[in-house]
C-alpha cells in the first residue's frame, strides 16, 4: 500500500519531533514545518495527504492554513490541534473542512488514532464511532460495489439534502446512515435514530416532535422531541414506510419549513437537521397504492442510496467475518478463530437472505460452539451445507447428462465401433465400456 505523507505544522520544536518519531513508526512519511507559511509552501511544492496543524502559530495560524489548504486541494485532510478547543472552535474547524481536532494537552495515542482514522478514510475505509451502541465499528467495503457506495457517501455527506437508503433486510442500512453522519461536518453533533415501526402513532408523534407540560393527560413535564435533540446533527428515520398519514403530514411540514412546535406548545423552534431515512419496502409502490404521500416521498428521496445485498458482493464476506470475529471475541473474552478455505467458499456460495446480519449471527454462534481454532466446513450450520450439497448434487447430475449424450453420439457416429468411439472421445476402451454399463447405452 502506498505510504501516506503527513505534514506536521507545529512551532513547539520538541512536540514536533515527538510527533515525527511516533508517526513515522506508524509508517507515515513525515514533513515538518514550524509555522503556517512554511507549511503552505511545502504543501504547494509536494504531495501531502494529511496536515496535522497547531492552531496558534506565529504568522499564519492553523485556521488560515486550513482555509488555504482546502482551497488548494480539498482532498488533503487536515487535523487541527489546539489548547483552546471549545466545542465551538472545534465545530467551526469542521465546518471549514477539518477532518478532526485534538485538544492540547493530548495523549500521543490520541493523535496517532486521529491520523490513522483519517488515513483509513483516504483509503475509503470508514470507522464509525459508537456504532451498534457498543463500540466503534469499521464499515467493511472490499467489493467494488461497496467501494462505489462509500465514494458516493463521501460526496454527499456534507450536503444538507435528504438521503434515502434502500436495501434488503440486514444489508447495513443503519450502519451506513451512521457512517454518513460520521463523514459529515456534523459529526460532533448528535446522531439520533428513530425506529418508526416500533411505536404506535401517538407515541411516535410525541417522540419525534416533543410536547409541553400538560399537552395531554399524563404529560407531566416538557419533553424534547427527537428532531429537537438532533438539532445541528442528523436524524435517522428507520422503517419510514410504516408511518401513518398523520405523521406523514407532520413530517412533511417539519421538513419543508425547517421548524416545529412541540405538541401543546406555541413557541416555534427552528431546526437545522439532516434527515436520513431507510426502508426495505418499496416506497414507490406505497405511493402508487396511495398509502404514502407523494410529496413527502420526493422530499425524502433527494439522494437515493442503494445498498446491494450480500449475495451480490461475496468479496466482502471474508473481511466481514474478520470484523465480527473480533467484535464477538472481545464481547465474550475469547480468541478470534481462523476459517478454512472450504468453509469460506461455502459461505461465499450461500444466498444470504438475511444479508450481513445473518452472517453476523452465524459467526457469533460458530465462535462460541465450534471446537478447533480453525472453522471447518462441518462447523457451519446445516442450511449452508445443504446449499452446498444441492449445488454439487446438481452439478454432478448435469455432468452425467452431458456425458451420457456425448457417449451415445460418439457410438452412433462410429456405427457401434467401440474402439473408434473411444478414440473420438479421447478415453480408453475400458473406461468407455464402464460408462456404457453405467448409462445403460445400447451399443447398436
Ligand atoms: N459493511 C458492513 N461492515 C460491517 N458491519 C456491517 C456492515 N453492514 C452491516 N453490518 C452489520 O450488520 C448488522 C446489520 O446491519 P444494519 O442493522 O445496519 O442493517 P439494516 O439494513 O438496517 O437492517 P434492517 O433492514 O433489518 O433494519 C449490524 O450489526 C451492522 O453493524
Ligand atoms: Mg435497520
Task: Characterise this structure.
It is a single chain. The model has no long low-confidence stretch (mean pLDDT 90). The chain folds into four domains: 5-123, Response regulator (Rossmann fold, 3-Layer(aba) Sandwich); 131-306, P-loop containing nucleotide triphosphate hydrolases (Rossmann fold, 3-Layer(aba) Sandwich); 310-380, Helicase, Ruva Protein, domain 3, CATH 1.10.8; 389-439, Orthogonal Bundle (Arc Repressor Mutant, subunit A). The protein has a five-stranded parallel sheet with strand order 2-1-3-4-5, sandwiched between helices. Strands 9-10-13-8-14 form a five-stranded parallel sheet. The protein is 48% helix and 14% strand. It is globular and about 95 Å long. Helix 2 (36-45) packs parallel to helix 3, helix 13 (317-332) crosses helix 15 (355-369) and helix 16 crosses helix 17. It contains 18 helices and 16 strands. It is of the alpha/beta class and 444 residues long. A hairpin with an 8-residue loop joins strand 6 and strand 7 (137-139). It binds adenosine-5'-triphosphate and magnesium ion. The site of magnesium ion has 3 residues, from helix 7.
